[in-house]
């Protein structure tokens, strides 16, 4: 614990003593100022050397010559600044700005912040403060590397992340593990996600589209927000108006050239009557938009396709690579977390749950990719969350819902989705975890705890943008099964769904 030293009152009427103390303090400040001037002269020779030269010329030849030389120096700096601004920023203003912000934001109050946050420790009569290893000041984010005290761990700092954010007057703060014994603080001071980001209407060649890195928005560090489509599944949770539609249509637009080529087909389940995806009703390859058996039949077809593909590649390849003859199926499910609630028949609910489990478990290798969107991520069916390696939480209503999407410790790791403003639809937090084994809850939870969380914003997709997508990327044909050589694979879907349980007639399907 850090304590302020007791204030020691000086004896009254000690005028000489007070004057002596003032002189000593003044001399001390002058000495410190002189040392700082010398140090800054060494740090910025491009400024100090011309000034020193002008002063020397004035001392040698007289002040008019020195004044003229000084004016020439200032003019030279002005020309440098206007003619080569990047060079001037690199060598002068940028370095000065970095020095100033390092001192102002961190160095001048580091000890007090650490003490008030409870991150110091007392050993005998000494107060130990975590030392700063390095500070890199950036336009958007500052990176502060800190050596942790013995007995501290990264989780200790994660628990203080929100308080540290306020202490440093930042808009965001992320805690990262850099190396053994050290922790990295990414302190974000500039919010580039405040304004909507228009969907780029750029038509590219299908060969340039990378299904393992499609751009759907921007991160808070001004980097592209890229989703891996091929080989993974994606879950996005958010309240009404949070921007889930923009995320979905941004992903569709990103693979538009492959849709036009036939290497990607889009299947959609919208159990709310097509409210969200009705624009593409005639454009999607498959579209189930009500709470009848349409969604069930679509899931059955997707399951048959993936089982047939797995049978074909067994012993030959690890996964399917999309082609026009064997396209990737992008299966978009609105209200994925509560899909079964739209059906009253218990048998239908049970089969939908089994089909979803099968597709989420095996679909990644078969190029059957699921993008699920959930308005209320607190529903019980969110237990399928572990089967979605990539997850995003847009604006949610409650703190607990952040954990429902991103994991229990998401807020401590910077996922503050419950604090997102109503005025910033499309802003959210994305987490990427390795694909989980649905039967290994302990490992799945451990992977969640290690996953990084990134603040992002999806492109803002308007109705005109959707019309542009539909008119620009028209599918060449409707998908009627894989057009691959060889004998067609016959799939008994019920055998795969009910092999470990009695069927609806009470007969076991185990063979």
TrEMBL record:
Domain of life assignment: Bacteria
Residue ranges crossing the lipid bilayer per the database entry: 21-42, 62-80
Secretion signal, residue range per the UniProt entry: none
Every FtsK domain range: 222-403
Keyword entries, A-Z: ATP-binding, Membrane, Nucleotide-binding, Transmembrane, Transmembrane helix
MF (Gene Ontology): ATP binding; DNA binding
Keyword Secreted in annotation: no
Keyword Transmembrane recorded: yes
InterPro entries linked to this entry: FtsK/SpoIIIE/SftA, FtsK_dom, P-loop_NTPase
Residues given in the record as ATP binding sites: 238-245
Database matches in SUPFAM superfamilies: P-loop containing nucleoside triphosphate hydrolases
Protein name: S-DNA-T family DNA segregation ATPase FtsK/SpoIIIE
Species whose genome carries this gene: Nocardia mexicana
């Amino acid at each position: 614990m850090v304590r302020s030293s007791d204030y020691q009152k000086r004896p009254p009427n000690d005028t000489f003593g007070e004057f002596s103390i003032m002189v000593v303090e003044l001399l001390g400040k002058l000495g410190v100022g002189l040392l700082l001037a010398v140090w800054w002269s060494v740090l910025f020779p491009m400024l100090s050397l011309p000034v020193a030269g002008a002063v020397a010329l004035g001392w040698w030849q007289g002040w008019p010559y020195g004044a003229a030389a000084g004016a020439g120096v200032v003019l030279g700096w002005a020309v440098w600044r206007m003619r080569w601004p990047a060079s001037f920023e690199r060598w002068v203003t940028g370095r000065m700005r970095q020095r100033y912000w390092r001192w102002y934001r961190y160095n001048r109050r580091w000890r007090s912040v650490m003490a008030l946050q409870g991150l110091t420790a007392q050993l005998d009569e000494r107060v130990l403060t975590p030392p700063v290893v390095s500070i890199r000041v950036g336009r958007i984010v500052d990176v502060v590397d800190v050596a942790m005290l013995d007995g501290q761990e990264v989780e200790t700092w994660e628990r203080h992340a929100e308080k540290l954010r306020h202490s440093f007057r930042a808009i965001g703060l992320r805690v990262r593990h850099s190396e053994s014994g050290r922790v990295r603080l990414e302190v974000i001071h500039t919010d580039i996600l405040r304004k909507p980001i228009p969907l780029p209407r750029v038509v590219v060649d299908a060969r340039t589209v990378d299904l393992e890195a499609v751009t759907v928005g921007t991160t808070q560090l001004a980097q592209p927000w890229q989703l891996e489509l091929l080989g993974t599944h994606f879950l996005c949770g958010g309240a009404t108006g949070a921007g889930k539609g923009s995320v979905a249509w941004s992903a569709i637009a990103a693979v538009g050239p492959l849709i036009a080529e036939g290497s990607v087909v889009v299947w959609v389940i919208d159990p709310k009557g097509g409210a969200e995806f009705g624009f593409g009703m005639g454009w999607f390859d498959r579209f189930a938009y009500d709470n009848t058996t349409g969604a069930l039949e679509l899931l059955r077809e997707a399951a048959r396709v993936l089982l047939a593909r797995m049978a074909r590649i067994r012993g030959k390849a690890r996964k399917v690579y999309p082609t026009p003859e064997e396209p990737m199926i992008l299966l978009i499910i609105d209200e994925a977390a509560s899909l079964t609630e739209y059906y009253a028949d218990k048998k239908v609910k049970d089969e939908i749950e089994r089909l979803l489990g099968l597709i989420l478990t095996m679909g990644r290798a078969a190029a059957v990719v699921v993008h699920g969107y959930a308005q209320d991520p607190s529903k019980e069916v969110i237990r399928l969350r572990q089967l979605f390696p990539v997850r995003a939480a847009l604006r949610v209503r409650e703190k607990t819902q952040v954990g429902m999407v991103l994991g229990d410790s998401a807020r401590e790791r910077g996922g503050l989705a419950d604090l997102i403003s109503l005025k910033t639809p499309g802003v959210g937090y994305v987490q990427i975890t390795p694909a989980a084994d649905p039967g290994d809850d302990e490992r799945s939870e451990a992977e969640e705890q290690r996953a990084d969380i990134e603040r992002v914003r999806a492109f803002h997709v308007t109705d005109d943008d959707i019309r542009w997508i539909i008119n620009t990327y028209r599918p060449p044909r409707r998908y009627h099964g894989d057009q691959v050589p060889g004998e067609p694979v016959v799939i008994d879907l019920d055998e795969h769904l009910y092999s470990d349980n009695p069927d609806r007639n009470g007969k076991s399907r185990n063979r």
